[in-house]
Amino acid sequence: MTNAAQAYAMVASELADPRALEADLLLRAASRLQAVHDSWEGKRSELDEALLYNRKLWAIFLTSVTGTEHPLPVEIRQNVANLGLFVMNQTVSMLEQPKRAQVAALININRELAAGLLGR
Description:
It is a single chain. With 120 residues, this protein is mainly alpha-helical. It is 81% helix and 0% strand. It is built from five helices and no strands. Helix 2 runs antiparallel to helix 3 (44-65) and helix 3 (44-65) runs antiparallel to helix 4 (74-96). The termini are far apart.
């Protein structure tokens, strides 16, 4: 995952607003999860794909915010890391026993963090 985090960091540093990129990725993941949530029955393969996308995204965030070189204050980094661990735990739980309410929780987390990144 280190290579993915390095690639993400390189692309983010080349863009004018890395926060907007992060928000866009979170909203994309939320949209994929929302599509599964809205048509819950018979969507196991779509759920697995959406969870994988979301998990990869959060793995990159976790790798980034837990690095000592990250510019955010320690308290904010810890909060994002805690959210990331919650997301990972929910994902594992849903892979074993999918529940629609858990998908809604992940959607809300992604949307709220995206809103924060965009200053809303």
